[in-house]
Write a structure and sequence with these properties.
This protein is an alpha+beta fold and 221 residues long. The chain has helices at 20-34, 40-51, 65-72, 74-91, 114-132, 162-174, 184-189, 192-195; strands at 52-62, 97-103, 106-111, 143-154, 159-160, 180-182, 199-206, 209-216. The termini are far apart.
Length: 221
């Protein structure tokens, strides 16, 4: 009698997903753990092409989330957010973008090209302006944005990397409502003519390292 094959068991530890890219990463990490430290650099270089993709990252944060939740309750915010996110998703394919995940009151977005990410941020702002028109303050949504560009570890349902971290810090902690800040790598990846349209924001310290930031002009602002 032939026994039916059981479904693969989820991996323990940090990577619990079973997508092909996650399995490939988990297998590589197991091989890396068995190798000597002097082999790590060569292993990483060989594996990089299969695991990393050069992408633009946009991280949004909702303004005054804590205050609004305190005043009107989490269910009211979730109602507003749940109705708006599909509008954002609908516009993403035409800009070669996708919603990686919703994280609390934030969106993690990925675009194939940096120019598409910049246009995508402007498109989200336009959507927000249209939906907010005529609404009472309690029902309005405002986003701040962080934009990064570089090689990211793309697992399908999540992305990791320095530019993801920087974009999230800019969107959550530094950018003001209606403001989009670019990482230095994102600035350098833009054509010279587009760089001249940016506005210098200033230097911000991240873990003892000073990072020079620029602001992306948003239409209607």
């Amino acid at each position: 009698m032939t026994r039916a094959r059981s479904a693969p068991r989820p991996r323990g530890g940090f990577f619990r997903g079973l997508g092909p890219r996650t399995r490939r990463l988990a297998d590589f990490l197991e091989r890396r753990a068995r190798a000597g430290a002097d082999e790590w650099a060569e292993l990483d270089a060989r594996q990089a092409r299969g695991l990393f993709r050069r992408r633009a990252i946009v991280f949004t944060d909702t303004a005054n989330f804590t205050t609004r939740t305190f005043e009107y309750g989490i269910l009211h915010f979730l109602m507003l957010f749940e109705r708006f996110v599909p509008e954002v998703e609908k516009d993403l394919p035409r800009r070669h973008g996708r919603l990686v995940k919703v994280e609390g009151d934030s969106l993690l977005l990925e675009y194939e090209r940096l120019a598409d990410a910049c246009r995508g941020v402007n498109a989200i702002e336009a959507l927000l302006r249209r939906r907010n028109r005529g609404l009472p303050e309690r029902d309005r949504l405002q986003f701040s944005y962080g934009v990064g560009w570089g090689d990211v570890l793309d697992l399908g349902d999540d992305v990791f990397g320095l530019e993801v971290n920087l974009a999230s810090k800019l969107g959550e902690d530094i950018a003001r409502p209606g403001e989009a800040l670019l990482t230095p790598a994102a600035v350098q990846a833009l054509p010279a003519a587009r760089r001249r349209s940016l506005r210098h924001y200033g230097e911000v310290q991240f873990g003892g390292v000073m990072v020079d930031l620029h602001r992306l002009p948003l239409r209607g602002r």
